[in-house]
Amino acid sequence: MKQRKVFVCSSCGNETYNWSGKCPSCGEWNTLKEISIEQKTKHSGTYKDATRKRAKNLSELSGESEERFDTGISEFDRVLGGGAVIGSVVLVGGAPGIGKSTLLLQICGFLGKKLRVLYISGEESELQIKMRADRLKIDGEFLLVLTETCIETIEESIDNIQPDVVIIDSIQTMYSGDIPSTPGSIAQVRECTLKLMRKTKSANITAFIVGHINKDGNIAGPKVLEHMVDCVLYFEGERNTSFRILRAVKNRFGSTNEIGIFEMRETGLECVNNPSEFLLSGRPINASGTCIACVMEGTRPLLAEIQSLVTTSGYNSASRRTNGIDYNRAAMLLAVLEKRAGIAISKCDVYINVIGGIYLDEPAADLSIALSIESSYIDKCIPPDVACIGEIGLTGEIRNVRFINQRLSELSRLGFTKCIIPYCSAKDLIVPEGLTIVKVENLQEAIRAVFHI
After folding, report:
1. How do residues 309-364 score in pLDDT, each as one tens digit?
2. Is 3 helix (H, G, I), strand (E, B) or coil?
3. How far apart are CA 249 and CA 102, in angstroms?
4. How far is CA 450 from CA 25, 85, 308, 339, in A?
5. I need a surface site. Which of 43, 92, 98, 434 has the fewest CB within 10 A?
6. Which H or E run includes 330?
7. Exposed (0-12), middle (13-18) or buried (19+): which is 348, by Cβ within 10 Å?
8. Spatial contact of 433 and 450, defined as CB atoms under 8 Å apart
């Protein structure tokens, strides 16, 4: 066996033989890491025994839909697209202590009553797993636990046990004896994931893999890891709050826009079936600078409270801080407010926050953000039963958004009586009983409709 050294980009997984400060593939800086890999000689016959397949015509391929099964957690099934697909590989990423192991152990408790589940932990001892299972009241009849980090030993255990579901916690702790590097390195993570995928897919076993995230919020290891698996889920939330969000960023068997919402309790993670009501709980009354937005997360309308604080700046350069929305988007809305609405906000400090720890990236929240800033600037309250929907353009126009009827239905269900929507949303509009619709064409009209000025 020969050894060769290559440099692998931790962002995109590109390999190169020479080091450089910038990755030639993705353009990221300081992401090339040196690894040593073993290379077989030219005449080692690596591919002699490989199984060769013939190309098939499209009409010869099977057109049957994938088989799914429930995981016992409705919000988790929702994010997966209606349950876990048999033979799929799901990568669950999140910060340490966010609740990834708790979530998967709860799934094991449900699946272990009817399926053979193998829970493999490389981070916790058997005693720690047992203590957590007792706290969560888990006693799956067919739930097997293995504390192991060697991927070759894990493959043997899978062959002997022949489980229906395998859970790896976590992939950064696993190592392969064929790779001369430490666990958690780029080569080890990629090789262990590849071996696990081959083993589970060949045996039609569903696999859930836990992955830690780095300081940038991405799953630690090569970016190619996310391309290898069938589904990538991110578990988000603040560790000092009970609110958790499960978001799909890749799903070969469903939508990537769905989210699942959980609440961390002493007995484990509980599904939040009515997230809008949960997010609006504790909302202040008769306070300026707050407005309700209705955004779509997949097929689910979600109400979120946006709060803004505008104060006179004591420095030459005004401060801008955002939490829960894109900073550049907020800067654009501030410029539109100053240019089109005529408010002198360039000398003011502006702070914008989305309550509940969620992140809003849909343009439909633009109007709510702008009106919350206006409310704080003039120190005038927006009525608590008013919500706003619409995207704002650079000329101050209010543009149409999709799924307007679903949003209005959710607002009516939660007791809102008035909603500001784009004027161009009149086609096929279904207005629920008790909800008054105000159509506006631009930002100035929206401000007059809300504040009566």
Report:
1. 999 988 888 999 999 999 999 999 999 999 999 888 988 999 999 988 788 989 99
2. strand
3. 21
4. 50, 47, 16, 19
5. 43
6. helix 327-340
7. buried
8. no
